[in-house]
Each structure stands twice: as structure tokens, then as C-alpha cells.
Amino acid sequence: MKSVIPVELPNQSYEIAIAPGGLDFLGTWMQGLGLGQRVLLVSNPPIFEHYGERAIASLTQAGFVVSPCLLPEGEQHKNLASIQQIYDAALAHHLERSSCMVALGGGVIGDMTGFAAATWLRGLAFVQVPTSLLAMVDASVGGKTGVNHPQGKNLIGAFHQPRLVVIDPDVLNTLPEREFRAGMAEVIKYGIIWDADLFEQLDAAPRVDQLQALSPELLQTILTRSCQAKAEVVSQDEKEAGVRALLNYGHTIGHAIESLTGYSLVNHGEAVAVGMVAAGAIALTHNLWDETANTRQTQLIEKAGLPTQIPSAVRVDDILPVLQSDKKVKDGKVRFVLPTKIGAATITSQVEMTTLRPLLQTLVAS
Amino acid sequence: MKSVIPVELPNQSYEIAIAPGGLDFLGTWMQGLGLGQRVLLVSNPPIFEHYGERAIASLTQAGFVVSPCLLPEGEQHKNLASIQQIYDAALAHHLERSSCMVALGGGVIGDMTGFAAATWLRGLAFVQVPTSLLAMVDASVGGKTGVNHPQGKNLIGAFHQPRLVVIDPDVLNTLPEREFRAGMAEVIKYGIIWDADLFEQLDAAPRVDQLQALSPELLQTILTRSCQAKAEVVSQDEKEAGVRALLNYGHTIGHAIESLTGYSLVNHGEAVAVGMVAAGAIALTHNLWDETANTRQTQLIEKAGLPTQIPSAVRVDDILPVLQSDKKVKDGKVRFVLPTKIGAATITSQVEMTTLRPLLQTLVAS
Ligand SMILES: NC(=O)c1ccc[n+]([C@@H]2O[C@H](COP(=O)([O-])OP(=O)(O)OC[C@H]3O[C@@H](n4cnc5c(N)ncnc54)[C@H](O)[C@@H]3O)[C@@H](O)[C@H]2O)c1
Ligand SMILES: NC(=O)c1ccc[n+]([C@@H]2O[C@H](COP(=O)([O-])OP(=O)(O)OC[C@H]3O[C@@H](n4cnc5c(N)ncnc54)[C@H](O)[C@@H]3O)[C@@H](O)[C@H]2O)c1
Ligand SMILES: [Zn+2]
Ligand SMILES: [Zn+2]
Q: What residue in A sits closest to B151 (Cα-Cα)?
């Protein structure tokens, strides 16, 4: 079972290869890319513990000269200090313009490796080997890379496309369950905004709240269709001028919730889940979609073991100012992505802040 | 007297406007770019002292909301710490995706502002207002941005094109003479590798070693033709895959000399001047060009008040290993740009290190 998804971009195209056991083919699949010998393998200690040896073996066997660079685990280390660690390792390993960085990890490792690759010697090749579900279906595709500023997430970054993405679903076996569910939030997102058929398959499955409950075929479908959806959106709009904004579905309010809970109480996927429920409710009050669709969305989110209510720790009055300080704001207007039916969404700046407050209030957990 | 040079790139084109008094039109000329209101003006204290007020007045009058960000002066501050200062200022001034950074300064300010713009919110617009001759004819054109790593110059960086370059030759009046001559080294470089007519005009001028010795027309010609040369090269090869390497003429050995003298004894332009003399000598021994052309180059460099000999503080034996660690090395081969006649050059990896040593020895100052 191997799926290959081509990502076609104006300046550079690349492939996403999805295959159980794919980690062992990393080196072989990289051979066709015309890269130099030297590879910096960026990861964190727990992930490297699980998969580092296999990645290195595969790369070495294919003739690459690999050096690992291990960064401390966690979002709190997604900062310029970690980037400097990658730079130092790149220098120590004598990377040249033709060399490559490989990210072996979740979205944190992927975003940082991509940013370091974008900015070392003014741009090196890099390869994504995402190990979390979220990184597989979202972070590793699309070329957004970056780190956090002490005062805001992902404020520092660059667009830099990977040369290859290797997704081995087997590595999800060691992913904590809560991280798995967080990734499912983004999968459901694609079902709502882009791919009705994906939604239907998730809806038809007996369970989607843990890896072990999925058939290998459904898992392959989830990964393939999600990457396909993201690749299609990104190909149409690499630099986020238009349609790419659809990917922010659930993220506007989601980000506010993450930020107001200090990025600790709820994780990103959970916040996005709540954000999608909120966006669904807004769409309903604006007659953009109907009750049935809205309910189906909420039920799927629940089935995935994801929250559908704003945590009671969050005060609705605090959400609105956060929305207005979001970096996607243009000239003070908040832009929302709202679903129009299952499988399609639209972007609007027409949501009045005055109607938003009471609506959000109904979504707060009691 | 206003010259406008279009720089045509696959993804984005922009103009270089060269005009005495142009600083006062900065705001007006930026009005056509479709930018948001907020502008961060990056400079250093001495330059801001001279020109900050006029820049701000011009921007404000055109409707922009400007905040200055002053960085400490000097190459030793071209590092990530200064970039973080720009990030902090960008945050404090609430820059949005549509906002713009303006670099008012020499190449150091330009490179850093460009890099910060490339990486803040994954890429903001930026405008170059170069104030040194070197920045006018070289650093501000072409989209290379970046900072130094403690262990090497410009190792950290990105390609990011400005949206506009505004060159006001009048600001050169306050530029120290030695900095002026350093810029002339790059001007002479364009004469050798690209524009024989520029070389002839410089050759025909009574003096080229200080600003005051140039007629306004010759100065305009120098700026226009140099930018034109760089723009042509860059347009043909934005990401430095081929012809752009020509711009490294004089820089291979120049960089080694800079590095071996600790970036203090000789400045960049002086090192490039010596590097061009060395490359000319290598070209001569390889029968790529003739004695006459070689002598004309050396004489013009001398006339510009630039050095033509390797400083005696540098040991030739130290140069070779530095060449081999240069980031332009591919698979261990040093690539040289060598002139084939006045106005044209070629790139070669055929120079034997064994022949290089005795040749460089003859160029050491006694
Ligand atoms: N670039 C993009 O387009 C994009 C999109 C979405 C999210 N992101 C970024 O991605 C990050 C979130 O990604 P994430 O959820 O993968 O977080 P993460 O990288 O922190 O991974 C989550 C946790 O799971 C662990 N982990 C990952 N894979 C594992 C495995 N196979 N086995 C055991 N443990 C494993 C990690 O060590 C970490 O502790 C955020 O920083 C976010 O900003 C980027
Ligand atoms: N991006 C590129 O393509 C490119 C090309 C060449 C050089 N560079 C970079 O440019 C830098 C060198 O540029 P530079 O020579 O302009 O150095 P610089 O920016 O340090 O300026 C030289 C000195 O002149 C001062 N100065 C500049 N303009 C002045 C003015 N009008 N009046 C009074 N003082 C003035 C500066 O404050 C500084 O002290 C290096 O860091 C180099 O790496 C970049
Ligand atoms: Zn997300
Ligand atoms: Zn130079």
C-alpha cells in the first residue's frame, strides 16, 4: 500500500509518499532528488529513540553521510534558540548548498527544520518525515515553516517547500492518543471544507477516536485524502493570498482559545475542534449551511473524542480582542472561514462582533 | 536627472529609482505599491541623524504611519540579536502582512532589514534606501538578505526581493571616503565582468577616488550602469545557479583576505580590489585575457585609491585552506570567476591549487 501525491507548485514540485514501513525507504526515495551527500537529521530525543536508528540506517545505506541534531522536545522550544542549535550543527557537519536537512518528528521539529533550511546558506533542501498525525496531514505539507516569538506563535517564519515528504503510518503506533486525536481535528477540517467523501468515510467508520480503532485502509485513506486536500489548496495558492485561507477553518477562534488557555489546557487540535463547532454555529446563524450539516459536524467531532465546547476557563469577553489582534486581520477586519455545506466553505469579513459574543456564550462548557 | 531601472524577476518585478533628492520622494514613490499604512523604518543612529527626519517626513506626508527602529552601527552587529530587535519593533508597531519595512542605511542595515522582512509573518514587503555606495550598487539589488553566524559571514539568510529601491546620490556626501572607495571596487567589478563601456568611462575620468572628484553625470552613470549590470545578472539567475556567480568576481580571494585579516585591517571593497587583481593575474597565466587588459584593470583599481596587493599581514599558505572552506565550494572544488576581456568573464573550477600558491606569493605587499 503506497500512495504518492504530487504537489504541483509554480517554482518547485514535490511528492508526498505515504506507505507503511516507508521510513526504511527514506534514503532510497531521496536518491532521486539530486542532493549532495551530507544530511542533517533533526529530531528530538524521544522520537529519535524510537525511529532515529532506522532513519540513519536507511540514509546511510543510500550513500548519505548523516549527522543527527537533537533539539529539546516541546512547543516551548520552538524558538530562535533551537534554530541556532540547528545552525551550529549545520556548520559542524559542513553542510553545503547542495546538502539537505531531514525533519524527523512532529510539527514542531518540521517547522523548525524547515525554517533553518530556509535560512541556512540562503536556502537548503529539506525533507519532511512527519511522525505525528497532525504533522502528516497538515504541518509537513504546504511549505510554511517557522518558530514562535515570545509574544506570539509562528510570527517568525518563511515559506520553504520540502523536496519530499515521507509518511510512514506505522510510526503513529507510539504517538500518544491525545496527539492522535488532535491530528484528527485537522482531518475532519478537510472533510468539512474540501472533501465531502472523506467526511462520509469518517462518518461511516465505527470509531475514529484512536489509531487502533482504524482499519489500515481507512488510515491510508485519511492520510492520502488529507494530504491531497492540503496539496490542492496549497497548489492553488502557495503564498496564502486567497483560497489557502480556507485552511484556517476553525483556527480563528481556535487560536484565541489556545492563546487564552496559555497553550497548555487544550492542545491545538482540541482548540480547532471547538473553533470548528463555533464556525459551524456562526454559519448556521448566517444561513450559510443547515442544521443537519451542523449537527453532523458536531457529532463527528465528538466521535473523534474531541471537545465541542469552549473551556469554562475562557471568558468570552476575552476572545474578541484576541481575534482582533490576530495576524490574519487586514485593516482591523476579522476574516472568518465558514462552511457552506459538508465539503465546501467560504471566507467572509461580514461577521459582526456584536452578534458573535452571545453566540460564543452558548458554546461555553458549564 | 532620474533613472529608473526595472528589475524583472519571474515572480516579482520592481524598480530601482536613482535621482538626486530622491529621499524626499520616498513616500510618494511607495504609494503605488499597494502597501498597508504601517512602516517600520530601520536604520542606525549616525545615518538616522543625517537622513531620518527627511525619510519620516516624506513617508508621513504620503500617509504612512512610521516608527523608527535603530540598530547599533557596524558589521559586528549584523547578527540574530539585531534581527530580534527588528522583530520586537515590528511587534510593537503592530506590523501586519500588508505592512512594509524600509531600510535606510548601508549594506548592513539593508541585509538585516531584508532578512527580518523575509521572516516576519513569513514575509513582509520591504524597500531599500541604500546610503553607502556599496549598498547602492550592490547590496540593495538582487534580493540577498541575511546576517552573520559567529563562525562565518552571511551564513544565515534568505532570498527576498525589495519592492522598490530608492537611490539618492546626494546622501553620499556624508559617506566616509574610505567607504566610497570600497563601493568603487564593486563598480569596477561590473566594468570588468559585464559592462566594458562603464569601464571605459571610469578609465577616461580624471579621478575616481573620491565623490567630489566625480561630475554629477558620471556619478549618475556609475550608479545606473552598476545597478543595471547587477539587475541583468540577477534577472537571469535569481537564485544563484549559474551566471549570478559572475558577481563573485574578486570575491573568492577577497573573502579569504577579509577573513584572514579579521574583517578589520582591510574592508570588503579593498579585499575585492586585491581579489580582482589576483583573478586578473590567474586569468593571465591561463591565457584567458591579455597583458594589456590586465594592466588596465590594475591601473583603474589604483586610480580608485584601492589596494592591489595582498596585505603583508596575510600568509599565502593560509589563503588556500580558507578558499577550500568557502560556502561556494561544491564537492571540494574551488570555483573561480576569471575575466576573458574587459566586459566579460567566465567561471572555472580548473585552477590548480599548486599553481595558485606561487602566483599569490608575487602579489603580497613587501
Ligand atoms: N507548518 C504548518 O503548516 C503547520 C500546520 C499545523 C501546525 N503546525 C505546527 O505544528 C506544531 C504542532 O505539531 P504536532 O502536533 O506534531 O506537535 P509536536 O511536534 O510537539 O508533537 C507532539 C508530541 O508528540 C511527540 N511525537 C510526535 N511524533 C511521535 C511519535 N511518532 N511517537 C511518539 N511521540 C511522538 C512529540 O515529541 C511531541 O511531544 C505546532 O508548532 C504548529 O504551529 C505547523
Ligand atoms: N545583499 C547583498 O547582495 C550584499 C552585497 C554586498 C554586500 N553586502 C553586505 O553589505 C555590508 C556592507 O555594506 P556597506 O559597505 O554599506 O557597510 P555598512 O552598512 O556597514 O556601511 C558602512 C559604514 O558607512 C556608514 N554609512 C552608510 N551610509 C552613510 C552615509 N550616507 N553617511 C554617513 N555614513 C554612512 C555606516 O553607518 C557604516 O558605518 C556587508 O555586511 C555585506 O555582507 C550585501
Ligand atoms: Zn491547525
Ligand atoms: Zn562584494
A: A91
Instruction: Kindly give the confidence (pLDDT) of every residue in chain A, 366 residues in length, as a single tens digit, with 9 standing for 90 and above.
Output: 899 999 988 888 999 999 999 999 999 999 999 999 999 999 999 999 999 999 999 999 999 999 999 999 999 999 999 999 999 999 999 999 999 999 999 999 999 999 999 999 999 999 999 999 999 999 999 999 999 999 988 999 999 999 999 999 999 999 999 999 999 999 999 999 999 999 999 999 999 999 999 999 999 999 999 999 999 998 887 666 678 889 999 999 999 999 899 878 899 999 999 999 999 999 999 999 999 999 999 999 999 999 999 999 999 999 988 888 765 555 556 889 999 999 999 999 888 888 899 999 999 998
Q: Does B135 sit in the ligand 2 pocket, CB within 6 Å?
A: yes
A264 plus A345 within the same structural domain:
yes
Asked if A118's CB is within 8 angstroms of B158's CB, the reply is yes
Q: What is the ipTM of this complex?
A: 0.89
Same domain, A296 and A230: yes
Is residue B160 in some structural domain? yes
Q: How far apart are CA B321 and CA B150, in angstroms?
A: 19
In this prediction the pTM is 0.93
Provide the grid cell at A107. Answer: 510539527
Residue B84 domain boundaries: 3-174
Q: How far apart are CA B215 and CA B226, in angstroms?
A: 16
Question: Is the shortest distance between the CB of B328 and ligand 2 below 6 Å?
Answer: no
Residue B157 shares a structural domain with residue B209: no
Is residue A164 domain-shared with residue A194, that is, in the same domain?
Answer: no
Task: Measure the CA dihedral A302/A304/A305/A309, to 10°.
Answer: -40
| Domain limit, last residue, from B110, B145, B174 | B174
Distance CA(A247)–CA(A186), nearest Å, equals 9
Residue A181 within any structural domain of the chain? no
